[in-house]
Amino acid sequence: QSVLTQPPSASGTPGQRVTISCSGSSSNIGKNTVNWYQQLPGTAPKVLMYSNSQRPSGVPDRFSGSKSGTSASLAISGLQSEDEADYYCAAWDDSLNGFLVFGTGTKVTVL
Amino acid sequence: QVQLQQSGPGLVKPSQTLSLTCAISGDSVSSNSAAWNWIRQSPSRGLEWLGRTYFRSKWYNHYAVSVKSRITIKPDTSRNQFSLQLDSMTPDDTAVYYCARDGGYLIDYWGQGTRVTVSS
Question: Which site from A22, A30, B91, B111 is most exposed, i.e. has the minimal number of CB atoms within 10 Å?
Answer without folding.
Answer: B91
